[in-house]
Amino acid sequence: MDNYQPLSHAILQTHAQLLHPRHSQQQALQLDSPALDAMTDFRKTPPLFTSPTTVIDDAHQKMIHCGVRLLFVLQSDRRLAGLITANDILGEKPYQYLLEHGGNRAEILVQDIMTPVNQLEALSLEDVQSARLGHIVATLNNVGRQHLLVVEYPARKWTDRIRGMYSATRIASQLQMALEPPVRAASFADLETALTSGWI
Known about the structure:
By secondary structure, the protein is of the alpha/beta class.
């Protein structure tokens, strides 16, 4: 400790205020803005998660408490099992599950209606680094999803590392413009989900 000297310091004033983070996600962007400007980088913003055996209404309450509309689903060994969104919980998925399996809503678990990991589309970080936001919007519309993951491939490893994510809802806010809904309404229930999620 002899090599370290105390820094100068002062007493806080009575008018001191806490500053809140100003993430790039809050800034207005353009379609030709760098795609990285709109990506939620998990090195800066840690992702929120739940377990496959969580009751869906408990997962939804966590979303509300944390101010998010998506949770990653992690297995006990920390491997990614999938993801679940507020639209999954509030849409027709629980109803369809009960029609097929019976029971009641209070018994539905996250694993019963989540999107499993082998159905999730992902972009490579290398491609994203040279892309524009318009490319991301086009990709979301092409795959019909509201979210896209971004993975990086560490040298000499066979597993993908999820570096970040794109949210269609957040991009619409960043662009300050309405976008076409990424999921086409195939039924009245799907249309209702699109309406309640703010896409129409």
